[in-house]
Amino acid sequence: MNRRELIRLLGRHGVVQFGEFKLSSGGFSDYYIDMRRAISVPAIYREIIELMTGEAVGVELIAGIESGGVPWASMLAYRMGMGMIYVRKQVKEHGTARLVEGIYEPGQRVLVVDDVVTTGSSIRKGVESLKSVGLDVVKALAIVDRSGGAADAGAELRSVFSVGELLDELKDAHQ
Predict the structure, then answer these.
(1) Was 115 annotated as part of a binding site?
(2) Which of 4, 100, 111, 139 could bond to 156 as cystine, CB 3.0-4.6 Å?
(3) How far apart are the C-alpha atoms of 136 and 161, rounded to whole Å?
(4) Dihedral through CA 61, CA 143, CA 70, CA 56, nearest 10?
(5) Is 132 labelled as part of a ligand binding site?
(6) Residue 120 assigned to a binding site
(7) Residue 70 DSSP SS3
(8) Residue 166: which CATH number?
(9) What residues does orotate bind to (predicted)?
(10) 89 a known binding residue?
(11) 3-state secondary structure of 23
(12) Is 118 annotated as a binding residue?
């Protein structure tokens, strides 16, 4: 499947929606990207994971950002034969009370994964949490970058798709 076909599949399955939406950043948008829908469609997630594999070279662990990045980090780690950890949004008040969950050693090289980035605040907080436990964050990877490359992720930020690429392909189909 080529990129254009994949993007159209995202639109067909409601991963990219048009309307009026409030974003987690507090802003409003006339489109919404719901990557949680994509994990329900094997034809979509298989292709996206394959596109992500090139970014996982030279790392030892894949870290997911709770909650949108966790399934993607898990699938990518499995595909690459690597361990996976995840970063909570806040320390839980029971059990081990950890912010970073999973097995890791200080100094390990990590790729941080999230589904969609707008301002970069979620990934940046995750990067800070990973660094605070001694991990070496090599780069961050979002499936979709809504920021136009302007997000402050606290590490080099890469993406599978830019929002412009998605919208350019889907706007014609939406109108």
Answers:
(1) yes
(2) 139
(3) 25
(4) -10
(5) no
(6) yes
(7) helix
(8) 3.40.50.2020
(9) 118, 146
(10) yes
(11) coil
(12) yes
Q: How many domains does the chain have?
A: 1
Output the CA torsion sign for 113, 82, 93, 131. Answer: negative
Q: Is the pLDDT of residue 68 over 50?
A: yes
Could you report the per-residue pLDDT of 19-62, keeping only the tens digit for each? Answer: 999 977 788 899 999 999 999 999 999 999 999 999 999 999 99
92 is in an annotated binding site: yes
Range of the domain at 158: 3-174
CB atoms within 10 A of CB 118: 20
Closest Cα partner for 121 from 154, 78, 160? Answer: 154
Q: Evaluate whether 117 touches 145 at the Cβ level (below 8 Å).
A: yes
Distances (CA, A) of 37 to 40, 64, 72: 6, 17, 12
pTM for this entry: 0.92
- Cβ within 8 Å of residue 27, ≥6 positions away: 118
The verdict on whether residue 152 carries a ligand-binding annotation is no
Q: What is the pLDDT of residues 154-175, one digit of tens each?
A: 899 999 999 999 999 998 765 4
